[in-house]
Design a protein that fits this description.
The complex is a heterodimer.
Chain A lengths: L15 H17 L14 E2 L3 E2 L5 E5 L5 E5 L2 H14 L11 H9 L10 H4 L4 H9 L14 H17 L6 E5 L5 H13 L4 E8 L5
Helix pairs in contact in A: 2-3, 2-6
Chain B lengths: L30 H20 L2 E7 L17 E7 L3 E6 L7 E3 L3 H19 L10 E6 L5 H13 L4 E5 L3 H8 L9
Parallel strand pairs in B: 2-5, 5-6
Antiparallel strand pairs in B: 2-3, 3-4
The chains are: A alpha/beta, B alpha/beta.
Chain lengths: 213, 187
């Protein structure tokens, strides 16, 4: 009599393929992730429910914990135009500041600017890490906003001109970024100057809600 | 598939008398490795999502020195005043009186806004778009911080309050706050 053999299938599942897929995905996510660049001005933004993504095109005014104002322009070509416009509009006022193509190039390359215009030629020669150290030591004074020497207003005018000419936008894409502990006085001052210069629509940069820290 | 069958075959082989070297299986259990990989994937995906910056829109009225101040119905107005150390004062109407203290938790500010919304809705109904007609005036003392401002504006979004304005603080309000919420009697 023939024996009946019960065929037993193994419970072993080959995991190699799955492992390949998992690591492929892992490497993909790691490589495509955009790491937050080390910021020269450390900012811990408050959280909000807002959902609009922060775009590269924004001109961001950062107000740090001490109320100093810094400017960052997302698009390099706009940044150069803004600088040129700034000097064009205030020819007499800032005539004594030496500007050349090299200084302009360095200015555009620098991530953030937070000094009086008179210091621009020397500040732009600093490397990012030097700038960070200067910021930490409190040596960067921020863009002057007081009424006697309101350079922020001049910058805003330059920004408005550039965006009106280049992109036909009456309201430039200005964003305000503040640390959660920033005293409101500094932010209010920036808003006030924006209002004076007829910029009524802007963005506040915050973090997506739900981050546990 | 990827594993070689090198098992010794259960003993019904023909080399019974020969020297048998023990053959190890080349099968490696990859389950823990897959677990680890997926754990890392989820970790990276979650952390990249949450560290994102988002932009909040803010529109301010145009500066027009000749424009007359807008007249508003007093019973539609709610004033919120952000003060130091995350305290928040509020009072209804336009006369500075009876300031009460609250905080930024959902139980605090949100309840107050929603209560006022109900009150305004009962009195004036909703506007054409179906939004509340309540007007919130936001005032920030010099001791408040940026987080307070963002929190209040966020609360406007959560409670779907469409009419709000950031205003300068009134000296009377500062006095009332210094006085513990009661307006100073003018005597």
């Amino acid at each position: 009599m023939p024996k009946f053999k019960v065929k037993r299938s193994s419970t072993w599942v080959d995991m190699t393929a799955m492992c390949d897929v998992a690591f492929l995905l892992l490497s993909f996510f790691i490589l495509t992730a955009k790491f937050k660049p080390t910021e020269i001005v450390p900012i811990k933004s408050p959280t909000s429910r807002a959902t609009e993504e922060v775009a590269d095109k924004f001109v961001t005014f950062t107000v740090d914990k001490d109320g100093k104002v810094y400017m960052a322009v997302g698009k390099p070509d706009r940044k150069l135009q803004i600088l040129d416009k700034f000097f064009e509009l205030n020819k007499e006022k800032y005539a004594n500041i030496p500007m050349n193509d090299q200084t302009k190039k360095l200015f555009v390359r620098q991530e953030i600017f937070g000094s009086p215009i008179s210091q621009l030629p020397s500040v732009v020669t600093q490397s990012a890490s030097n700038l960070m150290e200067l910021q930490r030591a409190g040596k960067l004074t921020g863009i002057p906003t007081d009424s006697t020497d309101n350079q922020l207003a001049d910058w805003i005018m330059a920004i408005r001109y550039v965006y009106a000419e280049e992109e036909n936008e009456d309201q430039p894409p200005i964003a305000i970024k503040g640390d959660q502990d920033t005293n409101i006085k500094g932010v209010k001052r920036v808003i006030e100057i924006l209002k004076e210069k007829d910029v009524n629509r802007y963005k506040l940069i915050t973090m997506l809600e739900g981050k546990a820290d | 598939m990827a594993d070689l069958d090198t098992s010794s075959g259960g003993g019904h082989g023909k080399h019974k008398g020969g020297v048998r070297s023990k053959k190890m299986s080349t099968k490696v259990d990859l389950t823990p490795m897959v677990d680890l990989a997926f754990l890392l994937i989820s970790f990276f995906m979650l952390t990249t999502q949450l560290g994102k910056s988002v932009a909040m829109n803010l529109s301010m009225p145009k500066k027009d020195l000749n424009a007359p101040p807008t007249e508003v119905k007093e019973s539609k107005v709610l004033n919120l005043i952000a003060d130091k150390e995350n305290t928040l004062w509020y009072y209804p109407g336009t006369t500075v009186a009876g300031l009460k203290q609250t905080d930024y938790t959902p139980k605090g500010i949100r309840e107050i806004i929603l209560d006022k919304q109900k009150e305004v809705k009962a009195k004036f109904g909703l506007d054409k778009e179906g939004d509340s007609q309540m007007i919130v005036l936001i005032k920030l003392t010099d001791d408040s911080n940026y987080k307070n401002m963002v929190d209040i504006l966020d609360e406007m979004d959560i409670t779907k309050t469409k009419i709000y304005a950031i205003q300068d603080i009134d000296p009377l309000e500062l006095e009332a706050i210094a006085n513990g919420g009661n307006a100073k009697t003018s005597d």
